[in-house]
Amino acid sequence: MSGEPTIVVQDVTKKYRLFASKRDRMREALDPFRRTYHREFWALKNVSFTVSRGQTVGILGMNGSGKSTLLQIIASVLQPTSGLVRVNGKVAALLELGAGFNPDLTGRENVMLNGTIMGLSREQILAKLPEIEAFADVGEFFEQPMKTYSSGMFMRVAFSTALYVDPEVLIIDEALSVGDAKFQEKCFRRFRSFQEAGKTILFVTHDRSAVPRHCNLGMLLHRGELIKTGDPAEVADMYGELLTVGQLPISRSRCFADGSGTPPGTDDEEKSAAAASELVRAFMDAPPTEDRCPRNPTYNPYERRFGNKTAEIVDYMIVDRGAVNPGSIRSDTTIDIFFKVVYRQKIEAPIVGAVFSSKEGVLVYGVQTDWLSRRPLPAKAGDVRVYRLSVKMTLAAGDWFLQLAAAESTADICDCRTSMAHLFVTDRRQYIGLANLQTEFEELDLLPTTAIG
Amino acid sequence: MSQRLNGYRAAAFATKLYANRRLIWQLAVHNLRSRYASTLVGSVWAVINPAITIAVFWFVSAYGLRISFEHGPPYFLVLFSGFIPWMAFSDALTGGANSVLSHQYLVKKIAFPLEILPIVNIVSAIIVHLFLVALLIVILLVSGVPATLHYLQATYFLLAMVAFTIGVAWLLAALNVLSRDVGQALSAFMTVWFWVTPILWPIENLSPRMLRVIELNPLFYVVQGYRNAFLYGLPLSALWPLDVYFWAVTAVMLFFGAHVFRRLKPHFADVM
Questions:
Q1: Which pLDDT tens digit goes with each residue over A223-257?
Q2: What is the CATH number of domain A278-426?
Q3: Domain map (residue ranges) of chain A
Q4: pLDDT tens digit string along A49-101?
Q5: I want to staple A427 with a disulfide (CB 3.0 to 4.6 A). Which of A195, A331, A350, B223 is the partner?
Q6: Chain A: closest CA distance from residue B110 (Å)
Q7: pTM score
Q8: Could you say which of A25, A101, A104 has the minimum Cβ distance to residue B267?
């Protein structure tokens, strides 16, 4: 983190000119009096930051927030409208799949060409070629024109080239998401050796969990403004909230955005806990006349719902340490899931339950009152009940979907709402897989007798 | 002031060309290779095609139209030595005008010195051209025309043609990105240009006034220069004072082309 900065971005602003037609564009470009024929769009507004040697920066932001524009300016593909960008050292940028690669040439020829564009001599490229080929691992396709490649193979070759041309700064715009998990892991491992070698990496991703795991600096862009720079986990949390709530959580963002405020302490937590219990009361009191689930910010409009509707889930709420329906949940915290069921007919022994599954649809954990040896009270037509499930979220960082269900028996489902809620879990600890099994490690001393024997 | 600025830019551009010489060469070779990729005899087509075109033109003109040059070397040689610089020019210009569009993968999302792209296509045209020049020399020797040091003058006319083409190619390549009409119009215009250049027909039949008009075509200078070098053994000064006119036109084209290219360059990635 020490030494002189590799990247200095100072008050950078990018204004796009939107033209009604190509003709207006040509007119403006060639107008001898430099008259204008466009509308303005601000992609970046007064963005400033510095990145030191060896830092890995994860940039988060919604679509259209200016992430790509920022990377393109740092890679000097675009010129800023105003402001200053200084980059010390050679930059390798992966901004778009296919950029810089001729689809008619083979993988090998493209690596040669790309190396030349990066300013390497023929000998230097030839020396690196075996390593690049091995890292890309596309087999015989290396000798085939790249137009025959799958997007994954294309990315592998592009990535390997960028990693091995020995840049001081590596810029990656979402390219990594095309690769399979194994290759991604290989790349992240390579990132680490980059970090150790004091090189700088900037990458944009939609995988929020990757930022705390691989970066030591997080940045959040929103509508062209850099609203937060700092601890990757905090930036990922804030982005999660931005995604689910759709706007900035004002109270929290303000105190962090300029770095001058203090993080919410115990006082605030107590206050928010009080606020939460009030919200729980409001939740209980809300009339069960309509389906209120879609109003929940964590609601997933692509849920799948089925059942005989003799009972209906009409509302739900998730509480995490006093935060109601949070945009992100820290792994290992216990969350409360409240949900409200309206009974349309008499059900002697209702069963309710919840299921967590991954975005690929893998069922990770499911439970119901029967298995918990709990029996909800018998219900008659018109009854309204609120249930609470307290769940310890030991799920791994990432996106998870929650299903809630009410049934008369396992065969008689009254209302099942699959993938109804979208939860996002963050975790700064490193491990792979779906859940954190919280491993302890210990190295044991061998007894001297064993060593001899 | 603007004179000095232009001079500075020209120097900066020359430096850029030199710095990127290996890249230009690599791209030019790839360019040729991809054109003849998946053909059986590959780059031999680059020479066979123009040779057949010349043979057909020669047959039709000499036997069908009975065009003949009363004095001097055989008509076939006159045709051949005039046709190959035209071929090179036509290849270089049409390729150059499409150069930005055809290298899309270098325009978007990568920091690349785009102004070298028209040069890439010009270089690949010259590679083919050099093979044809070699073929011309072989034919000349076989036909018993004595080889002279005047051959070296062709180098000067080749450079002159390249300079002129760079300017026009910058202009057209940039405009072509914003309006594809330019490419279409160019192919129509090239046909006209071919016929107003004395390649198939002798200038001896022209009236002096007509000759003054025909000479205004910069390609006239190049084509006649080639013939003077290879066939007539005339010195460099033979076309004077056309040299002054040619270089004036070329300088204007270079400055104008560079200016338009520079002005339009920031828009390329947005419209492609």
A1: 899 999 998 888 888 887 777 666 555 443 333 33
A2: 2.70.50.60
A3: 5-227, 278-426
A4: 999 988 999 999 888 888 988 998 998 888 888 999 999 988 888 888 778 89
A5: A331
A6: 6
A7: 0.71
A8: A25
